[in-house]
User: Which sequence fits this backbone?
């Protein structure tokens, strides 16, 4: 069983199923919690769970390593946790999942601009095809566009860019730190500002258990433990075992999972979901990694 967790395709599938389900869980949590409460609870509780590993890891880290862990954690484990629930006040869970598929595009672009990573032409074509698949879903899905606000949708795009930066920093700046220690250190550090945010939301002072909140706590608990702490550890492991490009391709599978949950939750299914999904899968096939590592563009 543990051998499966060394298989990059198995890890990709598990992460996609977990994170693809996170959008509907955020939607259900918003019934009883504010976006800031959802984001802060996810980070704070994950930090509390992993503190036993995170605190010793932070203490033993060299200053330079700790700096990059904190920066990578901000872009991958802190900022997006707030951007998604804020956006999903106006954007459907399906559309949020679709827009999140843009992550590999940001990895390719930022990797070339900031790290000199040269991608194969097939990866670029795969990213473009995947983007076209996502764009077709967005454009032709009436259920997803109704009531959606442009600037709220752009928050999801910003979260995708943030994930792209995170993936590159993990691969390029801290490739040798174990995924468990990395995850634990990140959440332990960012749990502190998250608790401060929770205090200012008034959750501690005005908490009241209601039937709606009881149900929402279940959704938020599953989202926090499996969708945040465990899935992020597996994601970091996938980045370190493969590359930031391959790991970010998990975002191409997220729309499929998110749309399925949307349908089960009463959203309309159209033929364009099939077309877009097929294009996304073609993109994954083209963007897959070969055994050779990406080449670096020479810098003068």
Assistant:
């Amino acid at each position: 069983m543990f051998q499966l967790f060394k298989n990059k395709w198995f890890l990709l599938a598990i992460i996609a199923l977990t994170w693809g389900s996170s959008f509907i869980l955020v939607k259900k949590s918003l019934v009883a919690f504010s976006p800031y409460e959802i984001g802060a609870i996810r980070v704070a509780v994950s930090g509390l769970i992993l503190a036993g590993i995170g605190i010793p890891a932070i203490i033993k880290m060299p200053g330079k390593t700790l700096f990059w862990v904190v920066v990578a954690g901000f872009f991958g484990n802190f900022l997006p946790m707030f951007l998604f629930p804020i956006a999903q006040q106006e954007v459907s869970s399906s559309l949020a999942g679709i827009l999140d598929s843009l992550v590999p595009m940001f990895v390719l672009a930022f990797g070339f601009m900031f790290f000199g990573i040269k991608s194969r032409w097939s990866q670029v074509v795969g990213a473009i095809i995947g983007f076209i698949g996502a764009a077709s879903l967005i454009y032709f899905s009436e259920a997803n566009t109704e009531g959606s606000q442009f600037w709220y949708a752009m928050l999801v795009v910003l979260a995708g860019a943030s994930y792209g930066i995170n993936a590159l920093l993990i691969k390029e700046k801290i490739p040798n730190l174990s995924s468990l220690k990395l995850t634990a250190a990140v959440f332990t550090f960012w749990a502190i500002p998250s608790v401060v945010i929770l205090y200012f939301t008034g959750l501690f002072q005005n908490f009241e258990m209601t039937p709606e909140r009881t149900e929402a706590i279940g959704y938020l608990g599953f989202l926090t433990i499996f969708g945040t702490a465990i899935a992020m550890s597996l994601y970091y492991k996938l980045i370190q075992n493969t590359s930031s490009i391959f790991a970010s391709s998990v975002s191409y599978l997220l729309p499929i999972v998110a749309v399925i949950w949307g349908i089960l939750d009463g959203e309309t299914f159209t033929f364009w979901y099939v077309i877009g999904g097929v294009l996304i899968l073609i993109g994954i096939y083209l963007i897959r990694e070969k055994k050779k590592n990406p080449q670096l563009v020479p810098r003068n």
